[in-house]
Amino acid sequence: MKNLLKYSLVALSLTIAANAAEKIVVGATPVPHAEILEVVKPILAKDGFTLEIKEFNDYSTPNLATEDGDLDANYFQHLPYLEEFNKNKGTHLVKTVGVHLEPMGVYSKKIKDIKELKDGSTVAIPNDPTNESRALDVLASAGLIKLNDNPLKTPLDITENPKKLKFEEIETAQVPRTLDDVAIAVINTNYALNANLNPTKDALVLESKDSPYTNYVVVKVGNENSPKIKALDKAVTSPEVKKFIEEKYKGAIIPTF
C-alpha cells in the first residue's frame, strides 16, 4: 500500500510538472504585439500549449524578465535594440523568428504637411540609442537633416540642419505625449497605435518598408530550441497570423514571414 501511494504521488508530481511545462509565458507591449499574440493562443492550444501574455509599457522590463526566467520569451523589439540592450545590460538574449515590421513615423498636431515645418522647430525623438538613431534616419530621409556615417546616431551626428531644428530626447513610450508641445515627433508605430494614431493616414513621413527593423520573438540563450519555443515560433509565423496582421493593420504593420 505504501509503495502504491508512493508511486501515485510520483505520478501526480510528474503530471503537475508536465502541465506546468505546457504553459508559455510571453511578455509583449500592448499594440500590436499582444493583439497578435491573442491570435496565436488558439493555434498553440491545438498543440497542447497554454499561452499567457504579460503586457508591458516599456522596453526594458520584459528583457530583464526574460533574462531572469520570469518570461519564456518576449515579443516587442527589433534586432538593433536587442543587440544594444545585451551590450549595455550584460544580458544573454537571442532572437528566434521575425514576425513583423512597424514603420516609424513623423507625427504632428501643429502642421498637416512636413513642408510646413518652420525654422527653429522642436522635434521629439526617442532617447534609447537604437530608436533615436532610427528616428534621425527617418528625418534625414525626409530631407530635414543630414547625418554622418556612424552606425548609432545622436543629434551630435547631424552634419547639416538647415532649419536649425531643436531636438528633445524623450523616453520612447512617452514620445506621443509630447505632440501638444512640439512641432513634430518621431514615434514607434506600436506607441502610435496605442495613442490612436493611424500610421498610414496620420504620419507626415513614414519609414521605408525596406527598413531592417523587423520585430522578433526573443528568448534567453539556450532556450531557443526548446519544444515550447519551437511551437511558439511556428504559431506566430502561421498563415492565420499573417492574415490577421494584413487585415487588421492595413499596411501600418507589415508581416515579414
TrEMBL record:
Membrane topology: Lipid-anchor
Domain of life: Bacteria
Main localization of the protein described in the UniProt heading: membrane
Lipoprotein in keyword set: yes
Compartment(s): Membrane
GO cellular component: membrane
Keywords: Lipoprotein, Membrane, Palmitate, Signal
Family matches, as Gene3D superfamilies: Periplasmic binding protein-like II
Signal peptide segment: 1-20
Keyword Signal: yes
Family to which this protein belongs: Belongs to the NlpA lipoprotein family.
PANTHER family reported for this sequence: D-METHIONINE-BINDING LIPOPROTEIN METQ (PTHR30429), METHIONINE-BINDING LIPOPROTEIN METQ (PTHR30429:SF0)
Protein name: MetQ/NlpA family ABC transporter substrate-binding protein
